[in-house]
Amino acid sequence: MQPSQPGVILKAAKGGPDASRLGAKSGDSMVQNKKDQKRSDKPVSLKILADYLGLCPATVSLVLNNVPGRSIPQETRERVRAAARKFNYQPSLLARSLRKQRTFTVGVLVPELSDGYHTMVMSGIGDHLMQEGYFYFSAHHRHKPDLVEEYPRLLMGRGAEGIIAIDTALEHELAVPVVAVAGHKKISGVTNVVLDHRHAAELALRHLHQLGHRHIAFMRGQPFSSDSDHRWRSIVAVARELNIEIRPELTIQLEKDLTSPELGYPVVQQLLQLKRRFTALISFNDIAAIGAIRALRDANLLVPDDVSVVGFDDIKAAAYHNPSLTTIRQPLHDMGQSAARILLQRIQGFKDYPKECAVPPELIIRESTAPVSGRSR
Amino acid sequence: MQPSQPGVILKAAKGGPDASRLGAKSGDSMVQNKKDQKRSDKPVSLKILADYLGLCPATVSLVLNNVPGRSIPQETRERVRAAARKFNYQPSLLARSLRKQRTFTVGVLVPELSDGYHTMVMSGIGDHLMQEGYFYFSAHHRHKPDLVEEYPRLLMGRGAEGIIAIDTALEHELAVPVVAVAGHKKISGVTNVVLDHRHAAELALRHLHQLGHRHIAFMRGQPFSSDSDHRWRSIVAVARELNIEIRPELTIQLEKDLTSPELGYPVVQQLLQLKRRFTALISFNDIAAIGAIRALRDANLLVPDDVSVVGFDDIKAAAYHNPSLTTIRQPLHDMGQSAARILLQRIQGFKDYPKECAVPPELIIRESTAPVSGRSR
DNA sequence: ACTCTCCAGACAATCGTTTGTCTAGTGCAT
DNA sequence: ATGCACTAGACAAACGATTGTCTGGAGAGT
After folding, report:
1. Quick check: B339 and B298 in contact, CB under 8 A?
2. What is the dihedral of CA A356, A362, A367, A372, to 10 degrees?
């Protein structure tokens, strides 16, 4: 029964002169529609809608898209729009994308989904993209090189018009615009959004220096983390200027691919076993700093009384940890937004895009740093 | 040299009158392709590939998809595959989806992107979906009703074959399969993945009861949070069984839409101003618990010495907070994976899907709870 | 009555695939 | 030579939209 219904409608419609009858028939189809609203088999297409209206799909499309310069009487326009509402017509973005060669979709590459740093950037990206009417695929690769290589291709196959890569070691140019957050490699067609690491290093080191710290331990990031190298080089340069000594035996290196504080715990434990004196620690990031503080506490060292700790990033947990973390804030949400903004500009054909966009860090002083105390001096 | 090779083959293959010319041309186009690899204007389509090979697109498609039951000589097959590799052919998922009416794409609705709870669920979802070859759109709505209403439609317009809604107040049935994580409303076509809140309440209350706590403060979740109601009702029920009194003046209510510990801070401050005696607090979640602990500490109360605190969720920060949190773990990653698994089964036509999937909580005892001390007793 | 001009909308091509059907040619047995 | 069965691949029709071009008819002007 039901399947034949549209056929009837179609017949009447095609008849031409009996357009008025059609109005009556459409009453029936309303009943059918009631059912559709509850359990629609197929979404209504432009063709179905056109058949129902006794028009051709093209005309319906013109009306619904408000294409200018087409003469279509107001009455028809309203009839079309009413029908679209009634059938809850939703144009297939797939079909439209195929035709217009625009998908309003981008791909986001990210190492992990459940991590403080990455998700803060993601949220900036998401905010801007959604606001501009774009959707995005996210793909997480856990730093696996084959996935880093494969996913961009897949994303492009799905119509991504651009790609944002967060903390991802891209190897080569892609056929679409790319913006890399925390990317440092210079690749043609890739815009890097980075922190001003030089400034960041100054903020951290000056702060500790002013508090009287002279024996500072340093934690380097994992080799696969995009920022590790730059951050370290900046620290080395600034330390030299400030005449702060970087002692190899007080330099520890993160290795594990973790996004929990467990990351920083064991390396600090090892550092402590060396029994070298240090009054401050600059951590690679906040997550590791939290693990470091736990390791210090487990060794009966108080933060900041015995050891001051500076974190990096200012993730949400930083402010509420105990002790709360002094840290170098990266404006992660803003960086995500900027990345998205730049990408969309490039997608929209903006040619004079920047190769690099450096954002300023900020020193957030909280409880985990203090002047060198008598106890540790 | 090498680039012209396929041209030669083409000549032989085509057999047509002008095939040789064509072959020569295709040699040129290989050179052009070298450029394309660096800066491709358009990705190569099946048609381009077919023209190059002197075949029709259909045949190329048949080869690349290994369609069985088609007689195509091995030699041709290899020729096709070689060309595909050479041109780095990537089929347009868009076009394929349109034709096959399968997109291998789902939509994920989530309140926030940068939150511990949601992202842990997301990571489970992402793991399973990617593993199964699906991609997903994520859309965040910040609990705004109009977006909760609109996004599912947009996602379906983009071809989402199913939708996973995390902590999202869906109002009605959709035309595609839906799985709701932490959904409690019974909606036709929606599978709810929920924690066994009854069991969770037992674990939390028994634990505190066994530690000797009798004056327990309770924190209720925000009205818009899907779990709030169920969790509270379970607590009330279990408290009655255990003869634990729930005093209105010791019951606080979260209101703000935050995902930072700031969430729990002010409400606990207010509670403290009432100067009512309590020795334990059951928090709505870990994030709020961290804020609560901060508020207690700021009031010179020690956790767990003066007040024991039980969290909920076991987000990553829980284990590394100071003091580390005793909490009711939700297997968030697993819940995400289950949600994805169930959704894919339903998409693949599995009819006998469960209406609800309850997962067991786990009590994780850490530092934030302790027996009632002399000091607080 | 004739042409001219619009109007309202149809028609058809297209985007890049997939897939059912059709056919020219070949080889083989009769 | 005839018929038959295959082979290798072409052809065409979708999928659901967009968009440039075309046309039948109504109305206006002369």
Report:
1. no
2. 90
- For chain B, what is the mean pLDDT? 88
Q: Is 0.85 surpassed by the pTM of this model?
A: yes
Nearest-Cα distance to chain A for B316, in Å, is 6
Q: CA B185 – C1' C12 distance (Å)?
A: 49
CA of residue B74 to C1' of nucleotide D2, angstroms: 32
Q: Is the pLDDT of residue A33 over 60?
A: no
DSSP annotation of B313: E
Predicted pLDDT of residue B158:
95
The helix (H) or strand (E) run that includes residue B195 is strand B190-195
pLDDT of residue B244: 96
Chain B residues 81-120 within 7 Å (CB) of strand C: 89-92, 94-96, 98-100
Counting Cα atoms < 13 Å in the Cβ hemisphere of A271 gives: 29
User: Taking Cα atoms as reference points, which of A108, A125, A167, A287 lies closest to residue B126?
Assistant: A108
| In contact, B177 and B347? CB cutoff 8 Å | yes
Each residue of A145-182: pLDDT tens digit?
999 999 999 999 999 999 999 999 999 999 999 999 99
When pLDDT is cut at 50, 70 and 90, the band that residue B273 belongs to is very high
**Average pLDDT of span A345-359:** 92
- For residue A43, what pLDDT is reported? 83
Give the type of residue at B46.
L
Alpha carbon distances (Å) from B144 to A112, A125, A165, B168, B169 = 27, 19, 29, 10, 10
CA separation (Å) from B37 to A6, A63, B40, B46, B237?
49, 41, 6, 17, 66
Gap between the Cα atoms of A321 and B377, Å rounded: 28
Residue of A329, A271, A263 lying closest to A291 (CA atoms): A263
At A294 the pLDDT is 93
Q: Say whether the CB atom of A92 is under 7 angstroms from strand D.
A: yes
CB A60 within 8 A of CB A70: no
Whether the predicted pLDDT of A58 surpasses 90: yes
Chains A–B, number of C-beta pairs less than 8 Å apart: 144
| 3-class SS letters over A197-254 | HHHHHHHHHHHHHHCCCCCEEEEECCCCCCCHHHHHHHHHHHHHHCCCCCCHHHEEEC
Give the pLDDT score at B31. 36
**B333-344 burial code (b ≥16 CB/10 A, e <16):** bbbbbbbbbbbb
What is the percent of chain A where pLDDT is above 90? 81
> How many angstroms separate the CA atoms of A125 and A131, rounded?
10
Q: Which two tokens stand for residue A372?
A: 């060198």
Using an 8 Å Cβ cutoff, are A165 and A109 in contact?
yes
The type of residue at B1 is M
Q: How many residues does chain B have?
A: 377
In chain B, the residue whose alpha carbon lies closest to the alpha carbon of A135 is B137
- Cβ-based contacts of B137 with chain A (< 8 Å): 135-137
Distance CA A110, CA A279 (A): 35
Tokens at B322, concatenated? 């100071």
How many Å from the CA of A147 to C1' of D9? 37
| Distance between CA atoms of residues B236 and B205, nearest Å | 10
Flag the least confident range among A38-52, A90-104, A183-197, B209-223. Answer: A38-52
Summarize the confidence of residues B251-259 as an average pLDDT.
Answer: 95
